[in-house]
Fold this sequence. Notes:
Blueprint: H1 3-14, E1 19-24, E2 42-48, H2 57-67, H3 69-72, E3 77-83, H4 85-91
Parallel strand pairs: 2-3
Antiparallel strand pairs: 1-2
Amino acid sequence: MDIIRTIEEKIRSSINVVNIDVIDESTRHAGHHFTSSASSSHIKLILISDDFNEMGTLKRHKLIYDLLNSEIELIHAISLHLYTQSEYNLKNK
């Protein structure tokens, strides 16, 4: 199973997801010399979940890092964009 699908499935099985986009941005970082068994080296995660209500940015990031610990070890970089539904709606007005 590829790492993108693994990340999405792990999150969906642990968090109430409103929307999730796991984007492989590896081609944008061509030239980075990173060796791994994962097919993707740079991941962008956009996650909307009302489980993030009453949770600050640091706690949200810690939750995702703890959840995806073994996957994050296989990649070079992950960019986290974590929102509640209302935060996402305000950001994208």
